[in-house]
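User: I'm putting together notes for a lab meeting next week and I want to include a structural view of one of the chains we've been expressing. I don't have a solved structure, so I'd like a prediction I can at least talk through. The sequence is below, exactly as it appears in our construct file.
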Amino acid sequence: MRNNIEMPNKIQRIGLGLMVFLTYLIGFMTILGLIVRDAEMAIVCFVITAIFATLVFFTRRKFKAYYKETAEYFLLGGHLRKNHHLTYRVYYKNIIDWVPLSKKIGVLDKTRTDNKYIYINFAFAKPEILLRELTEMTFTGKFNQADSSQSDDPNREQEFIDHLQTNRYGHLIEEFLKEQHSSEDS
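Assistant: Thanks for the context. Below is the predicted structure for the 186-residue chain, given as structure tokens.
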């Protein structure tokens, strides 16, 4: 994390640099195989170069992504859509829904015109402030289901608790409940 922005760490960057170096080296060996007219060397090196180049391409795309959160909003940037890198700024007060996914959470921002969810991957980002805000919103009833007769959990509280515990964020629920009990006692 640099300046409160989560990005790939130094070891990951060194690994990417090593992959780029090896890609160029093996690419050079491909050209060398063509120059000395060694077809086997050229073919093998070309295949390895293609594999490494593909890995580097997709790894670099992931490295352009970042996540930053403040007390009012979070930024999720670097997502590629139609050859444009997008950055989403979502104010917590504008979140109108959330969806639990495996190792992710999706939030719906009411200011978006396309009504698509923005997904935050827990393996990449540590969205503690976002999850605290969603915890508060969930327990205050902001995410009520329209037809509460179909569910025993109309505020989606248990669904949210289960999702956080599954993704190792159960401590946020405990902290929130402690804060609620301490504020009720005062």
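A couple of points you could mention at the meeting. Residues 1-5 have pLDDT under 50 and may be disordered. Residues 94 and 109 are 5 Å apart (CA to CA).

User: Perfect, that's what I needed.
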